[in-house]
Structures are given as structure tokens and as C-alpha cells.
């Protein structure tokens, strides 16, 4: 999309919701906008182009009433400045890669965020770390949904690692105060390829990656797994082996 066309769309007088499913958008497109949209409330960018912190800052300058934001963010530079506090955004869905310190900086500047969905591709946080983020930066958060890739898991202590991680999500903060539950699927066979996925329940993402029958061992924190194992948001299913579907316990 050219800057001219994007500016034409941005200039629409009643523009409230914008969903972009294009793959040739510049990662600096927001800095090229010439006008401010006071009507835009929801923006969803569906592509694989990661946006840095400065793009979110530029976006807020051009859409000060934005309430919903969905995009791919790349926070590789933990020292990148984020000069504005974005008070309007209340709902955000993020595909995140980068440095955790930069992610903290982003959350610090979203004080009114109420609903957060985040897919973390190269880092994971413990329940204690999520609790501290919520207390320090996201005091209004009501709904937290995440998927985190866990790797590597180390040799003979894999299950002990998983138990220790899940115990950080079994505290009063998670179970009693918020009723937020998580599940972990992992490969119990030790080796360099050992990995797992930790995600909130019910599952909140379009893509689900299945771990094959002999390589999958699940654990969870919810009191009734049958009640919470709903995967009705899934649009794409990625199976490691064809037999994965034959033992599937999930309801898609």
C-alpha cells in the first residue's frame, strides 16, 4: 500500500474501524500520515511485518481516540524510547517478539488497558512476573490471554521445570482473584528439540500447534479441564504428525 492510498483511507470522515490484510505496508507508514483521525476507534493490521515502539507512538499521534489495537510488534531494541503515554487504548492483541524490557516499557505506557491478548514467540514469563506487570503497569486489566513458546527444556528435569512454572500460576492472584487458568503442552522426551507451549484457557488464538501423541504431555491449573478446553477460536491447525488428530481431546 502506498502512503498516498493509506492517507486517503485515513482521511475518510467516518472511519471508525480499519482492518488491513495487506503485506506490502511499510513499517514506518504511520509517520507518513498527514492528517489526524479523530473517529478511528479500532485498528487491526494482519501481516507478518513487525512494528517497533515508535510506530505505536506515531499511530497514537494520528489516532488519539484509538481504543482497540491489533498488530505484530518487534521490540528488539530495549533502549528505544517510547515518548507518549497511550491512554485511549483499552483492548490490544499483539504478536510479540523482542526484548522483555521493551515489552515492560510498552505496558508501562498503556495504563488503561483492560483486555490483553498476546502471542509471545521467543520469550515466556512466569506467573509471578505476569502478576508484577499487572500490578505495576496494568492496574485496570480484566482479561489476560496469552500463548508462550517455552524452549529449551532441560534433559532429565523437564517435568520438574514444568511443575515449577505451573506453580507460579497456582497462586491466590491467579486462581482466586482473577480466575485465570493456564495449560502447558510439552514434549517429555529429553533432547535439544525439547519445547512446550503455555497458554491461557480457554484457548484464544487462530493457530493451534498440536504435539504428536507420543510427544505430548499436558498439565493445567484449572479445576475442571473439560470445561475450559474450548478451542472454538482456532482457524488453523498445525499437527506435527498425521496421528495427532486421532487422539485429539480438544473441542474445536
From TrEMBL:
InterPro entries: LRR_dom_sf. This is Uncharacterized protein. It comes from Adineta steineri.
